[in-house]
Amino acid sequence: MLALQLSKENEERLEAMASRTGRTQEAWAEAAIIESLEDEEDCRLAVERLQREQPGTPLEEVERRLGLAS
Length: 70
Known about the structure:
Distance between the termini: 45 Å
Mean pLDDT: 93
Number of domains: 1
Structural class: mainly alpha
């Protein structure tokens, strides 16, 4: 269980977005937290690889692996 204290402005923004989309405020908060965690994990992994001097994967290779190459 997590309780968040938002500023009045952000609470109003969240309420408005929930109302417009039909998603609950909790669903919006959970999605935002998950996205933020994933972004932070990706960033830390990239930094660790750079520190270990591991090569990255070129975008073209990622696209090919995912079947997105044109």
